[in-house]
DNA sequence: TAGATTGTTAATCGATTAACAATC
DNA sequence: TAGATTGTTAATCGATTAACAATC
């Protein structure tokens, strides 16, 4: 990526948040915003906003602030929402079904083109218009279609095997919904959604407040 | 909470991870482990493990390491997996359905006792044996049952209203699946699951590797 | 006892915040 | 021009890592 030097994960994880807030400002028909105003809305410091944005370039103007539309476009470009990713879902259970039905992903550039499962009762069916195929056909499918991301919503006991299978056929991005950590090659990018971890942290925080 | 002084969020968010690894070690019938061995398994430094654990007390023994079972019990107690939380799901869509069917939550102390929705076609039905009630009856329900946590899987445009409703009836814990940030009272604990943020970060990281 | 490993203090590193000169 | 606000450097803060005395 020609996106300059090394951007810290802390900054990267804030990008979608900037994107959301700018999207809202656009919809509110607000034309310009200063780092101070945005900091009040987002509950972070103006300093941090200016530091974060300057990782990618000087998008503002002294004495004026930032043009909302052009900043939104810049953040969109940085996040690559114009680029498209081809995705498959592995595991047609409840979570897989929820993901397949989630319309926002397509808007953000993520196209779900197929679902895979081992259950003969599910294979051949569709979810939200997307075909469910047998796991046995995954390799052939990936040979014929470029697949960027596998969304893994399989049972915990099969996650390691499935993750190895999808990476062995060349998929580089894994969206992992199992609690297990995946140890895969250096070239594979894994994003974890650890639901029970999140819930346990909520429980801890509630108890530490005395509830 | 009598859990000593101030524990940083960074440490708290690592607790479920320790919990998982210790659970696995127990199942592997491993009796003792040193911070060095655990650090290799978890891919973090032994120093960090010792620092983290010492936020809560000295669970180890010089020259020996940590007893897996007793450390597991300590972490369980800290995370409060023995304590029970009463939860409701608001929004019986695909994500709500997925959560209602997720059996692990109960094992971790989170009991889902009711689901609420506005759709007359869904009200009166059940998901995984849990009744779906009308949103109009939420207030009465919470008056009759102590509810600790509301899991919010409602459409984005209604999230603010729903979050205000559940907090106004005294629910202190919110598990928020909408992309919106909730601005609620100081006494309310919110954990966010921002799925599209996570996916966008995955996309960013893939592109920054040149895929 | 000798070896191993913790608990804990000190050093380092990185991220956040403050400050301000540059400039629109 | 005067006022406002950025871009950027410096200061602070917090988290991670290293080191080692204590001790099992």
End-to-end gap of chain A: 47 Å
Q: Quickly name the level 1 CATH class of the largest domain in chain A.
A: Alpha Beta
Number of self-contained structural domains of chain A: 2
Assembly annotation? homodimer
Name the average pLDDT of chain A. 95
What structural class should be given to the helix and strand makeup of chain A?
alpha/beta
CATH topology of the largest domain in chain A: Rossmann fold
**Adjacency order of strands in the biggest sheet of chain A:** 5-6-4-3-7-8-9
Give the number of helices of chain A: 9
- Could you list the spans of chain A in which at least 5 consecutive residues all have pLDDT below 50? none
**Strand and helix order of chain A:** HEHHEHEHHEEEHEHEEH
Domain CoA-binding (chains A, B): 80-181
DNA-binding region (chains A, B): 17-56
Pfam family, one (chains A, B): Put_DNA-bind_N
Binding site for NAD(+) (chains A, B): 91-96
Structure explained in plain terms:
- Two copies of one chain form a homodimer.
- The first copy, chain A, is of the alpha/beta class and 211 residues long.
- In chain A, strands 5-6-4-3-7-8-9 form a seven-stranded mixed sheet.
- In chain A, strand 7, helix 8 and strand 8 form a beta-alpha-beta unit.
- At the A-B interface, helix 1, helix 5 and helix 9 of A face helix 1, helix 5 and helix 9 of B.
- Chain A binds a DNA duplex (24 and 24 nucleotides) through helix 3.
- Chains A, B: Pfam families: CoA_binding, Put_DNA-bind_N.
- Chains A, B: Keywords: Cytoplasm, DNA-binding, NAD, Repressor, Transcription, Transcription regulation.
- Chains A, B: Belongs to the transcriptional regulatory Rex family.
- Chains A, B: GO terms for molecular function: DNA binding; DNA-binding transcription factor activity.
């Amino acid at each position: 990526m020609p996106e300059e030097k090394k951007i810290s994960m802390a900054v990267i994880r804030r990008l979608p948040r900037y994107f959301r807030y700018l999207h809202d400002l656009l919809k509110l028909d607000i034309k310009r915003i200063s780092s101070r105003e945005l900091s009040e809305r987002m509950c972070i410091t103006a300093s941090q906003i200016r530091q974060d944005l300057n990782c990618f370039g000087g998008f503002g103007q002294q004495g004026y602030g930032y043009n909302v539309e052009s900043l939104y476009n810049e953040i969109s470009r940085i996040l690559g929402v114009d680029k498209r990713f081809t995705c498959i879902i592995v595991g047609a259970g409840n979570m897989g079904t929820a993901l397949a039905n989630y319309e926002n992903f397509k808007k953000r550039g993520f196209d779900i083109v197929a679902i895979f499962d081992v259950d003969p009762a599910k294979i051949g069916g569709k979810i939200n218009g997307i075909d469910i195929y047998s796991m046995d056909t995954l390799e052939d499918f990936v040979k014929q279609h470029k697949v960027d991301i596998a969304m893994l919503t399989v049972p915990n006991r099969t996650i390691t095997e499935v993750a190895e299978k999808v990476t062995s056929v060349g998929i580089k991005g894994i969206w992992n919904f199992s609690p297990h950590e995946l140890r895969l090659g250096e070239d594979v990018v894994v994003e974890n959604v650890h639901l029970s971890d999140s819930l346990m942290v909520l429980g801890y925080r509630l108890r530490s407040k005395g509830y």
